[in-house]
Write a structure and sequence with these properties.
With 153 residues, the chain is α/β, with parallel strands linked by helices. Helix content is 44%, strand content 14%. Strands 3-2-1-4-5 form a 5-stranded parallel sheet, with helices on both faces. The mean pLDDT is 87.
């Protein structure tokens, strides 16, 4: 079974790390971004540009992801879709989404949206750090190693 890494690339800060790790495991990468984000294809990295509408990248990914693929996204809804298709989903900080954690994350996102509609303001996500980058690369490497070791011959 051939798997690939699919990246929700519009706001992804670890694109270089993904390409580097994928090359070392011989894993193809598909970076999906709107036309507002110019990405350059590289060895083993296919770039798919979609239109600017809100959900274009998500819809493309939802239609292309398959069991065993690895998705990198910050979008909890897209991660839930990937999990439903038996794919592996990671945040760009290296958090592994699971069936258990995704329900909590979706519920929290819904509650925060209700609070914002009610006038409450939140701080937003904390700044992305070098430690986040290292943690992501460690997690992705572990996932790719596991997939490689458990690949049917």
């Amino acid at each position: 079974m051939t798997y690939k890494i699919i990246v929700d690339a519009d706001a992804c800060p670890v694109k270089a790390e993904i390409a580097e790790a994928a090359r070392s495991f011989g894993t193809p990468v598909v970076m999906v971004a709107s036309h507002d984000h110019r990405l350059q294809p590289a060895d083993g990295v296919e770039v798919v540009q979609v239109d600017r509408s809100d959900q274009s990248a998500d819809l493309y990914i939802a239609n292309k992801i398959a069991a065993g693929d690895v998705l990198v996204t910050q979008d909890f809804g897209l991660a839930a879709l990937a999990l439903g298709k038996k794919a592996i989903a990671l945040s760009n900080r290296g958090q592994m989404y699971s069936d258990r954690s995704i329900d909590f994350l979706l519920e929290r996102r819904h509650e925060q949206a209700k609070q914002r509609r009610g006038g409450k303001h939140s701080k937003g996500p904390r700044p992305f750090t070098d430690e986040d980058r290292r943690h992501f690369l460690q997690t992705l490497t572990k996932v790719l190693r596991n997939l490689q070791e458990n690949r049917p011959q």
